[in-house]
Amino acid sequence: xxxxxxxxxxxxxxxxxxxxxxxxxxxxxxxxxxxxxxxxxxxxxxxxxxxxxxxxxxxxxxxxxxxxxxxxxxxxxxxxxxxxxxxxxxxxxxxxxxxxxxxxxxxxxxxxxxxxxxxxxxxxxxxxxxxxxxxxxxxxxxxxxxxxxxxxxxxxxxxxxxxxxxxxxxxxxxxxxxxxxxxxxxxxxxxxxxxxxxxxxxxxxxxxxxxxxxxxxxxxxxxxxxxxxxxxxxxxxxxxxxxxxxxxxxxxxxxxxxxxxxxxxxxxxxxxxxxxxxxxxxxxxxxxxxxxxxxxxxxxxxxxxxxxxxxxxxxxxxxxxxxxxxxxxxxxxxxxxxxxxxxxxxxxxxxxxxxxxxxxxxxxxxxxxxxxxxxxxxxxxxxxxxxxxxxxxxxxxxxxxxxxxxxxxxxxxxxxxxxxxxxxxxxxxxxxxxxxxxxxxxxxxxxxxxxxxxxxxxxxxxxxxxxxxxxxxxxxxxxxxxxxxxxxxxxxxxxxxxxxxxxxxxxxxxxxxxxxxxxxxxxxxxxxxxxxxxxxxxxxxxxxxxxxxxxxxxxxxxxxxxx
Length: 563
Known about the structure:
This protein is an all-beta fold. It has a domain at 488-561. 3% of the residues lie in helices and 37% in strands. The protein has a 15-stranded parallel sheet that branches. Strands 5-8-11-14-17-20-23-26-29-33-37-40-41 form a 13-stranded mixed sheet. A 12-stranded parallel sheet has the order 4-7-10-13-16-19-22-25-28-32-36-39, with no helix packed on it.
């Protein structure tokens, strides 16, 4: 048995420095009331106008037929406790968005259902201009439509958006933007996207969202569209897109990705699950003379997408589009994509890109045996250390690469001078033995997998990089694909306050009550903060509980060491 525990206990009295008031909104309330629990206000808009600095509006269950202009800073708007309020825009056309935030800061919207905004340019939530520290979390957004007619014709002027962020200020970027754990579904969006971050935005997180059953792109990070009047700032940048699930994001008039970057810069896209879309992900650059740069796509799962798992490059460079440069695609699992035989590009579609890396991925090709398509050239492409497989004679994988067709993997490797260290082999994904014969695997590797230790031996994981189980990325040599076989789950407390609040844990991963064997739990609160163990917690045999030196863990419920 090996249990590592290093704990320093601190007990102290905390007295808040400022009093903040909770106000309440109820459908049975009255805006002539004082807004306290027993005498709530009736409308959210009234509460927004009359609450004080840093006050909280608690919305009780019921339907609120409103559109809200949050025309002030420093307010928290949330559902009260376990209440389920619906903010419905039925019949309202006073503004495009159900919730509108323009040139305001320090605002959180949490736990609301937002729906039924049906008009041209309809929006669920709009953030625009000079906005700092905006958080949108735990909301359900649905039935945002550009038209009430499901069969309405679509063109570039027909748009609706679920959550849209416009960095439109010429010099000051939107920063510390957080879009967390929302669900967006059943929207007809025309030429626009489910969740989009566009223009002068520097520092953002799009984490833990589910986007499904919409008629265009799921999550989009955008630059070079003229949103910001200063061209050098007109680029969403320095962001992370993580632990999202996008599926059934299918456009009837264009190929839509579950995930898309068009003109962004310095973005990490990791640990997402994207399936049943047009593309699993596309890294492109639509605007002539512009560049999408330094996008990292790692540890994602892409499967059963219509055209391909991964598309990368400027589609008509140089005269019809920009280009993609310095991007890394690594440790992704791509499984049986390109199901539309009339449009299939297999698992990988490359147009024009420069200085990009494609390594440590699993490409498990469908029975049509087509690996990928490349055009326009890919100068300085580093394409190696991947694992290839198919249920249909994997040695005969086909590809069309820069005008040459290949009918075997061996001729593809030699003809393209790529993948010298990329074997053929079965990744042996885990499949539940009780599942039906056509069930999908869960994409975890099993003993004997050909993906184990087959990545680049020189690979070094980033400090915060984790596999699909939030486990450490490298044991010996990195595995191919999104799962690291046998690695230890990790949980890191990085906030301030209670143990059982997901926002206090890195990526929202709270340790289960019984921690897995070999797991690592690290307590590293913010400066002057603490971790309060407010629930019973079992630490398993061969687990590690580490309190970083100088940091505080306060135990008010049971900490149980099992062996």
